[in-house]
Structures are given as structure tokens and as C-alpha cells.
Amino acid sequence: MTKVANLSQTRGNSRPAYQLRISVTDRCDLHCIYCVPEDGIEWCSREEILRFEDIFLIVREFVSQLQVRGVRLTGGEPLCRAGISSLIELVRTLELDEITMTTNGYKLAREAQRLREAGLSRVNVSLDTLDSETYRRLTRGGELSRTIEGIRAAKACGLEPVKINMLVLRGWNEEEIPRMAEFAQKEGVHVRFLEAIAIGETSLQHHSLWVPADEILERLRRTFGVSVGQRAPGETETRLILTPKDGPQFEAGLITSESDPFCGTCSRLRLSARGRLRGCLLNEAEVDLFSWVKDPGRTTSDFLERVSRAVSQKPPRRRTRSPVRMAEIGG
Ligand code: SAM
């Protein structure tokens, strides 16, 4: 009990309950230029990554000890982890408000119904462009129509609200911002425009790729009336209301990770496929939960001590650049 109290103090009053993001694999079926290097990354072996039973035990501890209410599955690409629905079935037996997933949508058309039945609440799908050729180049070989079919399948089977993440990158897709908003409205999904974070691959060329939030708004204003709302505490998204010249208004989101970061209220903890826990996306420091979960004599106090260390790595303010790879930790 003392440990939990300490952990709440480390968290500070401004941080709401923790949200846990779990990277279930470091593998991905796309090779986005901003995420993985051209010659790929060395994937973890099966023995090095957490089994579903291990993930379940860790999440159970987070739920019972730290009142975690939401879990997001990510990757690599979470749908590249075989049998992912059975992990969702396991985790749904815990007292969680929602289990969500961030995916490239590539296998979603085939998996959406199964995921829904297993207990997945909703999905965020990464879609940076509506141009097939740009999609192919950006993902190093991907086929746009598959992701669009995936988005439609997710919506059709109720994995809603479906959210699209559009990472805005200079010279790649900034001209498409209004078109992506129109697409989202037409498809009945919610789009969020993401500023590129200086991390991993993007870090190297960040100065040339970064499109600031102000410019994203300015580009939207050329097509829509734009009203900028608040960012709710603990949320990453600034609400936008877009009003087309004709037609009803709709909501979108802006994620200002670089120009207006939210580190002070960030409540995320990230568990990698290798069972390492990080308090911050941009901080390489990690805490080993792999050895904790593999130890038959593991104790709750040891768990809390380890989590507390990860939490203490959460910086109050934004770090500048990071060599951490998105592909390993899942965004
Ligand atoms: N494979 C899944 C997918 O494509 O959604 C999950 C992993 S991916 C790393 C998660 C999210 O991170 C994606 O929405 C992607 O756009 C975002 N992301 C990757 N690199 C980024 C960067 N440098 N800045 C901001 N977001 C980034």
C-alpha cells in the first residue's frame, strides 16, 4: 500500500490514471520511411518477447494495483502478432473500460470482425496519404486500397469511433490535409493530424520533414472554417471543428507533440514486446518487467517498485530529440 501511495505521488496531481500501451510485436508488414531504416531492423526472436499469458499477468497487476482502465495494443504492427484476438479475449476478462489498437489497417479487412468479437473496443488506423503512389513510396511497397478497405471494415463491424492518424510530413503529404479531412467526413471517421516527433528515423531529417501545427491549421483554413477547441487533461488531441463551405460541420483533431507538447500531463506507460516498461516515448531508460513476469516468485511490491522507477523517468518537460525507434515502442 505504501508503494502505491509513493507511486501516486511521483505521478503528481496533474497526471490522470495511467494508460498502458503495449507493443505486442516489433514486426511490421509495412516499412514506413519515418519508422524503420531502409535496410530494416533486426527483429526479436520468439523467446525474447512476452507470451500472451505474460502480458495478461502484467496487465492484471496494472489494473488491480494502479487502477489502469485502458489498454492500447500497438507494434510494430499488432496484427502481425499471430493470434492477437486470443490476447484480447484474455485481457477483456479484466476490469478495463476499453481495449483499443493502433494499426496500419493492412490486415484489418480480414481481422476486424474477429477482433470485435474478441472484445476490441475501437481502432486508430494510420493513413498518411490518399494517393496510391505516395502511399507505396511512404510505406516502401504498401497498397493504399488495403488500408482503406480495412478502415471501412472496422467501421462496418462497430470498432468505433474509427480514428485515422495522418502524420504530416513536408514534401510528402501536407498538400493533402484538406482532402484527408473531406475523406474522413465522407467515411464517417475521425481524423487526427499529427506533427512529426523528432524520434528514431524521423529524428535524422526532422528539420526538413516537420510541418508545424500552425501550418496544418492554416492549410485547413483554406478549405474550412476552423474552430480550435481545448485539449482535455491527459489527452493528446486538440479538438477542431471544421465547417465546410456547404455541408455540416464535423470534428477533427490536432496533435501538437512538438509545438505544444503535453509532457506535464502525460499519463502513458509503454510496455515493449520485450517486456520493458518506459515512462516516456523519448527516453531510452526502461525498466525490466520481463524478468519480473518470468519469475515464479514474483511479488506485487517488486512490480510496484519497478513501475515506480519507470514513472520517475517521465520528464516534466519535453526532451528535444531521441534515438528511440518508433518501430520498437509503437508510438
Ligand atoms: N503499425 C501501427 C501503425 O501503423 O499504426 C502501430 C505502430 S506506429 C509506430 C504508431 C503510430 O506512430 C502511427 O500512427 C505513426 O504515424 C506514428 N508515428 C510514427 N513515427 C512518428 C513520428 N516520428 N512522429 C509522430 N508520429 C509517428
In short:
The chain has 331 residues and is α/β, with parallel strands linked by helices. Helices cover 35% and strands 18% of the residues. The chain contains 13 helices and 12 strands.
Task: Give a structural overview.
- The protein is α/β, with parallel strands linked by helices.
- The chain has one domain: Aldolase class I (TIM Barrel), CATH 3.20.20.
- Helix content is 35%, strand content 18%.
- It has a twelve-stranded mixed beta sheet with strand order 7-8-9-6-5-4-3-2-1-10-11-12.
- Helix 2 (52-66) runs parallel beside helix 3.
- Residues 28, 34-35, 74-75, 77, 102-104, 126, 165, 167, 194, 196-197, 199, 202, 326, 330-331 line the site of S-adenosylmethionine (SAM).
Outline the fold blueprint:
Blueprint: H1 2-11, E1 19-23, H2 52-66, E2 70-74, H3 84-91, E3 98-103, H4 108-118, E4 122-126, H5 132-138, H6 144-156, E5 163-168, H7 177-187, E6 190-195, H8 200-204, H9 206-209, H10 213-221, E7 225-231, E8 238-243, E9 250-255, E10 268-271, E11 276-278, E12 287-288, H11 290-294, H12 300-312, H13 326-329
Parallel strand pairs: 1-2, 1-10, 2-3, 3-4, 4-5, 5-6, 6-9
Antiparallel strand pairs: 7-8, 8-9, 10-11, 11-12
Helix pairs in contact: 1-12, 2-3, 4-6
S-adenosylmethionine (SAM) binds near residues 103, 196, 199 and 202.
